[in-house]
UniProtKB/TrEMBL annotation:
<dbReference type="Pfam" id="PF00106">
    <property type="entry name" value="adh_short"/>
</dbReference>
<dbReference type="GO" id="GO:0016491">
    <property type="term" value="F:oxidoreductase activity"/>
</dbReference>
<dbReference type="InterPro" id="IPR002347">
    <property type="entry name" value="SDR_fam"/>
</dbReference>
<comment type="similarity">
    <text>Belongs to the short-chain dehydrogenases/reductases (SDR) family.</text>
</comment>
<protein>
    <submittedName>
        <fullName>Short-chain dehydrogenase</fullName>
    </submittedName>
</protein>
<dbReference type="InterPro" id="IPR036291">
    <property type="entry name" value="NAD(P)-bd_dom_sf"/>
</dbReference>
<dbReference type="InterPro" id="IPR020904">
    <property type="entry name" value="Sc_DH/Rdtase_CS"/>
</dbReference>
<keyword id="KW-0560">Oxidoreductase</keyword>
């Protein structure tokens, strides 16, 4: 029976790179996005490249609790994944004291609450099975405060705390938990920035780091992966 991976926000950037990396190894894939046409494109692309891999997708806005739960139920009808990647996120620049009203709630629900509710949907099954690997895609912004980070930075600090707590809770049950904290990665979030592409990290480098951490023996866990551009933060 093929192993499987669940990646939220898998139609672009780091999420898509992780999907490709695991699909190359024969993992079946489950993913979601707010954009239905992008999900269809992903499914077709994966069918062309990895015809032996099952790719199942669902359109969902994970800033909405009910849609998180609906997506979890959709996956559970098929399997309990071996790997869960909490990747969904948004970045709206702005300072905490000036950003528009509602930006904080939207960012926290998308970046943090989605991971909380989705993870809770699968932890009991992981504990019963005594296996599983949960990755939270955070950010350097969850380690270093910077101007104009606003609610995004707050959400990523909170994501790191959530993941650390989860690691302690699931440790006795054989479930590995890893925080991934990438610096500036060349994805759609940086579109329009007047910087050369080679100033950014590759999304595929983040995916390779996730794959390497997953492949350790059950006796070891990478608790945090911090990756920065070679020339430093942007």
């Amino acid at each position: 029976m093929a192993k499987s991976i669940l990646v939220t926000g898998g139609t672009k950037g780091i999420g898509k790179a992780i999907i490709h990396r695991f699909a190359r190894e024969g993992f079946d894939v489950f993913s979601c996005s707010r954009n239905g046409s992008e999900l269809n494109s992903l499914q077709q692309e994966m069918a062309d490249l990895y015809p032996e891999v099952q790719v199942q997708v669902m359109q969902a806005d994970l800033s909405q609790k009910l849609e998180v739960k609906a997506f979890a139920a959709f996956v559970k009808k098929n399997t309990i994944p071996d790997v869960l990647i909490n990747n969904t996120g948004i970045f709206i620049p702005g300072s905490l004291h000036e950003e528009p009203e509602g930006n904080f709630e939207k960012t926290m629900h998308t970046n943090l609450f989605s991971a909380y509710y989705l993870t809770r949907a699968f932890t009991d099954a992981f504990i019963d099975r005594k296996s599983g690997h949960i990755f939270s895609i955070g950010s350097i912004a969850g380690l270093t405060a910077y101007a104009n980070g606003g609610s995004y930075a707050v959400s990523k600090w909170a994501m790191l705390g959530f993941t650390k707590c989860l690691r302690q809770e699931l440790m006795p049950h054989g479930i590995r938990v890893t925080s991934v904290l990438p610096g500036a990665t060349y994805t759609a979030s940086w579109e329009g920035v007047d910087l050369p592409e080679d100033r950014f990290m590759k999304a595929t480098d983040v995916a390779e780091s996730v794959w390497a951490a997953y492949n350790l023996s059950p006796r070891s866990v990478v608790e945090e992966i911090v990756i920065r551009p070679q020339l430093g933060d942007i």
